[in-house]
Amino acid sequence: MTYSLHHVHLICRDLEKMIGFFDKAIGAELVERRKFGTADGATLDLQGIDINLRVAREGENLRENLTPSSYGYDHIGLQVDDVQAAYEDLSKRGYSFFMPPTEAAGLMIAFFKGPENITIELVQPLD
User: Could you give the CA distance from residue 94 to residue 88 in angstroms, rounded to a whole number?
Assistant: First the structure.
């Protein structure tokens, strides 16, 4: 049996803001706007991986604060060619880094908060 990542699915408050982030800041391409059950959503393509976004369904009870670490979701890791350049670009766009570019275990990494406080790691393998 072979497994591979098919998609990431995020629930968000502001669908347009989240689409804008993945499209404009990260370079994902909007594939379609769609419904996920009764909830409005969208699918974006990030280098062959689907990013599914949707708003809460009517009556759905969602936890408000996932800022502290919790069991389950922790962060999204995105590989980039140049962490420093991505750091500079995203900082200019107003995204807040809580770990600037740092070398760790053969990688250059940086962590920032995306829209709705999602944690995103930038990863650059070092030679």
Answer: 10
What length does the chain have?
127
Cα separation of 87 and 107, whole Å? Answer: 15
- Per-residue pLDDT reduced to its tens digit, 39-81: 999 999 999 999 999 998 888 877 766 566 666 778 899 999 9
The answer to whether 115 and 21 are in contact (CB under 8 A) is yes
The string of DSSP letters for 39-96 reads EEEEEEEETTEEEEEEPPPTT----S---S--SS---EEEE-S-HHHHHHHHHHTTPE
What are residue 109's DSSP bridge partners? 102, 123
